[in-house]
Amino acid sequence: xxxxxxxxxxxxxxxxxxxxxxxxxxxxxxxxxxxxxxxxxxxxxxxxxxxxxxxxxxxxxxxxxxxxxxxxxxxxxxxxxxxxxxxxxxxxxxxxxxxxxxxxxxxxxxxxxxxxxxxxxxxxxxxxxxxxxxxxxxxxxxxxxxxxxxxxxxxxxxxxxxxxxxxxxxxxxxxxxxxxxxxxxxxxxxxxxxxxxxxxxxxxxxxxxxxxxxxxxxxxxxxxxxxxxxxxxxxxxxxxxxxxxxxxxxxxxxxxxxxxxxxxxxxxxxxxxxxxxxxxxxxxxxxxxxxxxxxxxxxxxxxxxxxxxxxxxxxxxxxxxxxxxxx
Length: 327
Hints:
Layout: H1 13-45, H2 47-54, H3 56-59, E1 70-75, E2 78-84, E3 100-110, E4 113-120, E5 135-137, H4 143-159, H5 161-172, H6 178-221, E6 227-229, H7 230-247, H8 250-260, H9 265-270, H10 272-286, H11 291-324
Parallel strand pairs: 1-3, 5-6
Antiparallel strand pairs: 1-2, 3-4
Helix pairs in contact: 1-4, 1-5, 2-4, 4-7, 6-7, 7-10, 8-11, 10-11
């Protein structure tokens, strides 16, 4: 019996293309993970500076308040304070609207007795900076290591962002036509701009206000609100910042739907009240589920929605003008 030859049909080109895309995607993921891993090792080396960056909003907790004189007390190697005082209580404060001085606590012998004595330290470190009223604490032997890793991981994601964004873009862009690339670049640019605007406005303005409101609310309830757990503070700040960055993508989604014709200026104006409620819901989902952050996030989101309504009105007006123009 003659040997029969069985012809094996080659795999379809589409199947090969699909496998090739999977391999390209795997390469993108591997390269992105390597970039994040290298950045993570670098951030762990300078994690103390990253923690100082995260603590910046806490040091500016009195951003919109009138500065007041403060004093700190140094006993041995331990420093207490700063504490808000008046010039009537400490008449020897240096000149200026809000000086911050450090007194060294010691004793002096008066006859047979020892009495407490305060000595003003000249050019005390930190005398020219805003005092940090809230103190962060670790309540476990391993908390410091977990906090360092979490902060370094967030820093690594930001530091390696240009690399993994480039890798992802190099995977997606070849599948787009030239006209699609030209159309998508402005949207990506505005998306990045709004994300940075949300992050920076939160970091420099909203966070100090929210933190100060938290302290004030604790005082209103009769609780001492100046000692916080460091892990809770880091989690609060990072979720708030990245949540606001994502929340500021809301106008991109709305205007993209307007461009596609799914929404109109009249529809956007009609659902104002619904969006106001949705802004508070987004504040709870994207940040932390408590009133201060919800309000701090809902107000900017609603203002951005109002801007979207005006932009949609302008686009429709421009489109009507183009249709009415003679050929």
